[in-house]
From TrEMBL:
SMART domains in alphabetical order: ETF
Species this chain originates from: Paenibacillus septentrionalis
Domain Electron transfer flavoprotein alpha/beta-subunit N-terminal: 5-198
Family to which this protein belongs: Belongs to the ETF alpha-subunit/FixB family.
Key words of the record: Electron transport, FAD, Flavoprotein, Transport
Name of this chain's protein: Electron transfer flavoprotein subunit alpha/FixB family protein
PANTHER family the UniProt entry points to: ELECTRON TRANSFER FLAVOPROTEIN ALPHA, ELECTRON TRANSFER FLAVOPROTEIN SUBUNIT ALPHA, MITOCHONDRIAL
Domain of life: Bacteria
Amino acid sequence: MSHTILVIAEHNQSALRRVTLEALQAAIDVVSGSSGTVHCFIAGKQEKELQASAEHLLRHGAQHCYLAVDEYHDSLQALTSLPPLLVVIEDLKPDFIIAGHTVYGRELAPRLAARLASGYIADVTAIRVENEQVLFTRPIYAGKAFETRLFQGSSPHIVTLRPNNFLPADEKNGELFTDLSEAISLANQPAAPLSVIVESVAKRISKGIDLTEADIIVAGGRGVQGSEGFKLLQELADELGGAVGASRGACDAGYCDYSMQIGQTGKVVTPKLYIACGISGAIQHVAGMSQSHTIVAINKDPEAPIFSIADYGIVGDLFEIVPLLTAELKKLQA
Ligand code: FAD
């Protein structure tokens, strides 16, 4: 069975987000071994930058890219993206539409599903093809169980993928391409005028690693006892090339900013390594990090629930253990 898949790309006007390359690879895997095709839709303000992103996607295995260029696409918003996207969908008639389970994707996908009277499966962490059916797995009950769903009824079927759960597309996927420009077309439908205007964007200057895309996260809870304690975690994260996250307990206590909160009402993360320091492991926290590949917990209470989901547990005082870990890592780098 061959499928036509449309991937909705996301970028920060200069670079593609990693989740887009993950969605691209997931789409390529679904069509692999068939005559199915993978296309991308990308909206933005600057045509030159979109062209560069489109070429990147083509080199990584997309067959065709649709560019929607409009000043209203300055910041990616679902309502402005919808008109050109609907025209592309009408033209392409994709079987599946895949976006990242991000702020943009989560706003866009249900609106699309409503407009197209289509099904939508959110927060997908795995896709497999079995007996010609495409099956989508997603966590439920705050990550305590997984369910596998499939679509029925008419397409397009809409899916959002949880970041960091799929390998990003590789450059070798696209080696058959000779003339990239032929594979790019403009989606001529203008964007919808903004019904909500972004007055200003205050960019948080962080050490550059987006929590949702970080491979390594060192997270702190109420046990960290203050912003000074978080400096210890930052030092460990710096040694590991990771980012620092937090429990809501730590955010509520004013130890760190809410942008660092991980959990049910914070960010959902899936790093390769998650080091939880002074975090008890409440279900609302676990909902946002239980899919991490390897979980290390440091807690002085041997009964702390976090140990039940940890791959490695260290019972002890984080103020002794974290500096020791950092010092050992420094020795390795020396
Ligand atoms: P605590 O539960 O107080 O745990 C602190 C831990 O630190 C303890 O286990 C203690 O043994 C350990 N400790 C103390 N000192 C040390 C030391 N020196 N060394 C080592 N260990 C030490 N929480 C989230 O995190 N994210 C969410 O998104 C979220 N959403 C929520 C939504 C709702 C609707 C509700 C009701 C709650 C939500 N919560 C969320 C809150 C959640 O229920 C917990 O209250 C919170 O996760 C607890 O944070 P904590 O583990 O840092 O603090």
